[in-house]
Amino acid sequence: MPEPHLLTSGLVDVALGENVKIVEPCNIYGCRLGDDVFIGPFVEIQKNTVIGARTKVQSHSFICEYVTIGEDCFIGHGVMFTNDLFKNGHPDPNPDHWGRAQIGDHVAIGSNATLLPVTICSGAVIGAGSVVTQNITEKAIYAGNPARKIRVLD
Amino acid sequence: MPEPHLLTSGLVDVALGENVKIVEPCNIYGCRLGDDVFIGPFVEIQKNTVIGARTKVQSHSFICEYVTIGEDCFIGHGVMFTNDLFKNGHPDPNPDHWGRAQIGDHVAIGSNATLLPVTICSGAVIGAGSVVTQNITEKAIYAGNPARKIRVLD
Amino acid sequence: MPEPHLLTSGLVDVALGENVKIVEPCNIYGCRLGDDVFIGPFVEIQKNTVIGARTKVQSHSFICEYVTIGEDCFIGHGVMFTNDLFKNGHPDPNPDHWGRAQIGDHVAIGSNATLLPVTICSGAVIGAGSVVTQNITEKAIYAGNPARKIRVLD
């Protein structure tokens, strides 16, 4: 029987700010993590991502290529970002065609939320288990599949 | 470049019953696991939680602070519990303000379900992929986002 | 205090094709992985499963017993398959009663999707965060909870 190619999760080519805390095992590569960022266990963060200072990424979350997250955000547990919308019915091999997600500052994303490649304004809250399919431009709480505004925040 | 603080997942300060089985890697701390509990791989269980005898917690699940799960329950794969509702638009630093989840006995929770801090009565079934936003007081099958009753159980 | 039985994730009893790539940690046992399959980190694959050549299973996904996946598929991150529907209000101990999932070729399943034990035809696309509750027999894009057809593919 053929042998598999076994690769090992870890930290590779990560630009780190001061006082970053990371709980292993994790699989993090080619990204930038700001000062005082916290990364929980069982997290994967792909290349071409930026995570701002003091943002927390909780266990089981996945941050894909071309996601930029601001400062002081809370990314819950099991949150999944996406970039490729399979518009032509299959994964698109050209990264130039993928969407870019841009998350503002002080954004809180509940556990098990799914995010299509959208823009979310600073201060917005995404409820647990939501699926965010459109840009969010108003500071409010959003929930559901697809996520809809349920309460405006002051 | 600064060095990160690397922490390692593991078992810390866990009160264990007899014959508990745990598949590593896991990140489990400050909780109580009853007799014959099974914990699958890639599971995080936070402090101030109790899991009753013979309950199974499958891979990829996350059990947050202030969750109490009864006996003989089945917690599927990728199930996420929550406690903080971000009511004021951001994570609340005071744990006294967080909700408490109380799960009865013989409860079955399907994979990828998300649970807000609710009470679920004994014998209830939560379908896979559901988001439970309200207390469940009737023994029935619930599914959807938000989860609604779809069939009463005898 | 009693000692727990600690088991370790790994590869056990896996039939491997040529050039399979696996990122550890993972928990994979009793299954068949075709040529050029890729398995990301934090993945669990149970026994009695088959994954066809060139299919990619991304991080955090869980493939349960009695799932057959075709060739050239893309299984996103955090995708959860299921087999037991808890029809009688609790997990069914008899595997003969569980459903079987059959996924065709060139199927793309978005991240955080949940699949009940269904058949999905070749070329179908399942949107991120969807919950697939019924068989899919038409090549199209499906999304939502429950998943519904949103666009036919050529």
Explain what you see:
- The structure is a homotrimer of 154-residue chains.
- The first copy, chain A, has 154 residues and is mainly β.
- Chain A has a single domain (11-86, 94-152), classed as Hexapeptide repeat proteins (UDP N-Acetylglucosamine Acyltransferase, domain 1, 3 Solenoid), CATH 2.160.10.10.
- Chain A has strands at 5-8, 11-12, 15-16, 21-24, 26-29, 32-33, 38-39, 43-45, 50-51, 56-57, 62-63, 67-69, 74-75, 80-81, 101-103, 108-109, 114-115, 119-120, 125-126, 131-132, 140-143, 148-152.
- The mean pLDDT of chain A is 97.
- At the B-C interface, strand 3 and strand 4 of B face strand 1 and strand 14 of C.
Structural class of chain A: mainly beta
Number of E strands of chain A: 22
Most extensive chain contact? A-B, 40 and 31 residues
The DSSP helix count of chain A reads 0
Distance between the termini of chain A: 62 Å
Cα shape of chain A = globular
Described by its quaternary structure, the protein is homotrimer
Unreliable stretches of chain A (pLDDT < 50, length at least 5) are: none
What proportion of the residues of chain A form beta strands (DSSP E)? Answer: 35-45%
| Major beta-sheet overview of chain A | 8 strands, mixed
Known CATH architecture of chain A: 3 Solenoid
CATH H-level superfamily of chain A: Hexapeptide repeat proteins
Number of domains of chain A: 1
Share in helix of chain A = under 10%
Mean pLDDT of chain A: 97
CATH fold description of chain A = UDP N-Acetylglucosamine Acyltransferase, domain 1
Q: What is the radius of gyration of chain A?
A: 16 Å
- Largest sheet: spatial strand order of chain A: 4-7-10-13-16-19-21-22
